[in-house]
Specification:
CATH architecture of the largest domain: 2-Layer Sandwich
Bound molecules: nicotinamide-adenine-dinucleotide
Helix content: 25-40%
Strand content: 15-25%
Oligomer: single chain
Length: 348
């Protein structure tokens, strides 16, 4: 049995337990939460709820500790767990900033333990659909990618509204969307521009737009809103051979691209719904083709299996702290950009 200890039995901690209980060969040996009511909740679920951190870190049988506390506790708990001889899976955002992560990486190096970040959204079907479209060059070479999530309920009124706890949407959803792009696009980020707003929650960003430029010429817009009542598509990708749109997480959408029929320009001005314009007049239908999105299957529990096989030495780690460090440096630059009101150049 691969024995796991969990720290922080809130929403995400409970999710980890639910997932792991369905995976043969994995066992949750102990669950600790600073709040006794949550430990009791774990016990009600038949888990071994324990009342101290030491009972998790001191258990010689536990191989790996999952950390699912609010973000401002990730660093001290990750360091304590590795120093106690445990491998660590830390929830995202891995840390509050890149400096904290550098410190944790140096402890990883000293202890020789494995440290990974739970970037589970690399297994999302919508993301894998986009990745497949780009890999297959279905729309040629991409030059602009829009990745967004938009809700209308604001931020849950917990630690996510508190800056010191690592609240705000850039560290919450932003870290997922940036990680997906940096995992998919094999090129350094060379410029970051962030426009961040605090519409309903004054202490943290609850709406942001982030423009990333990659060295290979691809630009990406990352947008997260918590107060938008008419959402835009989850993904919109422009390539030099066509356009792909993924509407939502259920992966409806389409690909439209130019076919081999030569497109001829009309002579003179054209009267369209947009008024007199040749540039924005609709393209002749016979020069277009529409394709369905590729069908992708995925299971986010593969994350745990891959981590276990990395611990056993069969595979390299899938989500490494070095990858997470690139993402955190982009996030640091985004905060700096928003504060200074200008783009930040870099090569990350
Ligand atoms: N990967 C994902 O898709 C995903 C989704 C949601 C949340 N998360 C991440 O998971 C983490 C937890 O988020 P959540 O939504 O479960 O929050 P939550 O508030 O529901 O749960 C956090 C739990 O941690 C406990 N806790 C706080 N400080 C502690 C400490 N020092 N030691 C032990 N327990 C402590 C709290 O009592 C609470 O039960 C965050 O880092 C968040 O960003 C990840």
């Amino acid at each position: 049995m691969y024995k796991i200890g969990l720290i922080g039995y809130g929403g995400m901690g409970a999710w980890h337990c639910d997932m792991l209980l369905t995976l043969p060969g994995f066992e949750i040996s102990a669950v600790y939460d600073i709040n006794p009511a949550r430990v009791e909740k774990a016990r009600e679920k038949g888990l071994n709820g324990v009342s101290s951190l030491e009972e998790v870190l001191g258990d010689k049988n536990i191989n790996t500790v999952i950390i699912a506390t609010p973000n401002n506790f990730h660093k001290e708990l990750s360091i304590a767990a590795m120093q106690a001889g445990k491998n660590v899976i830390c929830e995202k955002p891995v840390m509050m900033n890149s400096r904290e992560l550098e410190e944790v990486i140096s402890v990883r190096d000293k202890t020789g333990k494995l440290f990974s970040v739970h970037q589970n959204r690399r297994w999302d079907r919508d993301f894998l659909t986009v990745k497949k479209i780009l890999e297959d060059k279905t729309i040629g070479s991409p030059f602009y990618i829009e990745s967004r999530v938009q809700g209308s309920k604001g931020i849950p009124g917990d630690w996510r509204c508190v800056k010191e706890a690592g609240g705000g949407m850039l560290l919450d959803w932003g870290v997922h969307l940036i990680d997906q792009l940096m995992w998919m696009i094999d090129s350094p980020v060379v410029e970051v521009y962030a426009h961040m707003l605090s519409v309903k929650f004054k202490d943290v960003d609850d709406n942001f737009k982030l423009l990333l430029k990659f060295e290979n010429g691809i630009s990406a817009l990352v947008e997260v809103d918590t107060y938008t009542f008419i959402p835009l598509p989850r993904w919109h990708i422009s390539g030099d051979g066509g356009t792909a749109q993924i509407d939502d997480f259920s992966c409806t959408g389409r690909i439209v691209r130019a076919n081999t029929v030569e497109m001829k320009w009309d002579e003179g001005i054209v009267y369209t719904a947009a008024g007199p314009t040749r540039t924005m007049a609709p393209r002749p239908k016979e020069s277009l083709e529409e394709l369905p999105l590729p069908k992708i299957e995925s299971d986010s529990r593969d994350y745990y299996k891959m981590f276990k096989s990395a611990v056993e030495g069969s595979n390299p780690l899938t989500v490494t702290p070095e990858q997470a460090l690139r993402v955190m440096r982009v996030i640091d630059a985004a905060f700096e950009s928003s504060q200074k009101g200008c783009a930040i150049s870099m090569k990350i």
